[in-house]
Every structure is written in structure tokens, then in C-alpha cells.
Structure of endopeptidase La:
Amino acid sequence: MSKKIYGRSLVAAIIFVIISSFIYLPYYVSKPGMAKELEPIIEVENGYDEEGSFMLTTVRMGRANIYSYAIAKFSKYQELFPLDAIRRDDETDKEYNVRQLHLMDSSKLSAIEIAYKKAGITVNYEYNGVFVLNVLKSMPAEGKLEPGDRIFEVDGNKFDSSEQFISYVSGKKEGEELNFSIERNLKSMTVQIPVKKLPETGKVGIGISLVDDKEIQVEPKVTIDSADIGGPSAGLMFSLEIYNQLVEEDLTKGYQIAGTGTINTEGKVGPIGGIEQKIVAADKAGAAVFFAPNENGAADSNYRAAKLTAEDIKTKMEIVPVDTFDDAVKYLESMEEK
């Protein structure tokens, strides 16, 4: 083969690889992400310092091309998920991303509430309206509202909860047009949308799924810079970091403590996805302890999956089952200083 033919073949092969890498398959690939220290991104005003650190753990998730699909097939701690296992029916990439970011926001609010209440500090909320998560196809809101829009008034009326918003809209007659005052990309505008009977409920509506837009009010103030991290799985670790800055005793005892799990305002820890990848990420970061949702001892719990992974990678991390925020605090209080 001449050098010219070889060169052309090489160029053709490179072009093929580049082009084919942009051909996406109907799967997502999940792989170990990072273990990120929380003290640099969470700040309680005049809060206490800590010798160790609390860390959230993440997974890296992305659409699979033919190469990442093949790699995941032969990688022990990479996992493939069909699209409908990650995204809702008819949910766009934008809607999925908006939903993940608002799940993170809700997680932060719950974490702040449970931490401040545990520290004996009063918590208040200010309601600002609702955020649009999804817009249903062939429904009145299609083409008029977008994921991420904030609705702060309807017909000039403000509401104290999303329940009041839904009650007002569903109380109208089918075909009646309502004025929605919204904020999109920091700009305010008004859109007119008629209500229509929803086949799922039999009540009238405009065809959106939504979540409360509310701000928590606490003293001392707290800020959480979660950037573009989405999803609710950092809730438990957020709450532990916030609480640790509120109280004088340093619960880290000088250790690096990782974990995962959702948190609600009652302090209950919920299961998450990708626990195996998160164990790998925490181990690489040198964590000494990993909190895993116990799910009340269920046979297929996050905790059991975490234990199996920990044994497989031969980590020295202590895998600790937790059902509540208090379970985690009690374990930390029982640890000896490093």
C-alpha cells in the first residue's frame, strides 16, 4: 500500500471515528463521578470550622454513543440505562435538566430545614410562585410556557402554595382564558392560556407539571453553591454539613466522611441510583466512612448494594446504614477522635 493510499485510509478512519462518536444510542451511561468536599460550597454565617470533611458523591451520566456503550458493556462499574429509565415519557433533554436542578433545589431546602430544626433554630419560608418542570404535548401550555419558567401570578392573584395555584386554575370552566404572569431568563411577561380538561384527572388545567418556588428564611444565613449538580441525592450530606457548622461539636472528628441519600423535612433518608459508582468514587477520594440509605433493612437496599461493592473493591471504608438524619448524627457522635 502506497503512502498516499495509507494516508487517505487513515484520514477516512479518523473521520469515521469522529462522526460515529456523535451517533447516540437510546441509552444513558452511568459511571463513577467524584467525591466533593462540602465545606467550600456550604457556608453558614459565622459557622463553626471542622477538622475533617463531609463529602457528597456523584455519578457521571451521559448519552451513550457506540464507543461508550461498548466500554460500559465490559466495565464492572459502568452501567447502561434505557432512555425511559432516566427520562419521563416525552420529556426533552431541557425538561430533564430543569427537573434535576429543581430536585437539587428542593433537596437543599429540606437539608437546611432539618439541620436548623435539629439545632433548635426556627425556620420560615417565603413562597414566590411555581416553576414549570414539564409542558405536556397537545395541551394549552404547549408553545406558551417552557421548562424553567416561573409563574408568579394568575389573573393578578398571588398564592401562598402550589396547592392554592392548582385549586384556582382547576376551578375555572373549560375554555376560559387565564393571564399568567411569568419570569423567563430574568424577563417578566404575561401569556394568555385557556384551560382544558386533563384526561388524567378529569379536572381542567393547562398541561404542566410544577414545583414550588420558595425561599427558606433562617438566621444565621446559609448559602449553598451547588453550581450545576442536579438531583436530590446529596440531601443527607448537605444536612450533615450544615448542622456541623451550626453546632460547636465537630462531628467529623477529623475524618473524611462521604455518603448519599435523599432527605425530607422529617429527616428520613431515601434511596438513590448509582450507589455502586458512588462507593468507588468515595474510596478513590480516601473517605473513611460512607453513609448509605438502609431502606428499613430491605433485601435490595442501597446499603446492601454498597456493602457488596465495598467488599468487591476491598475498600477500608466503613459502610454505615442510615434510615434517618438522626441515625447519621448518632453514629458520628459515637466515633472517637482521629
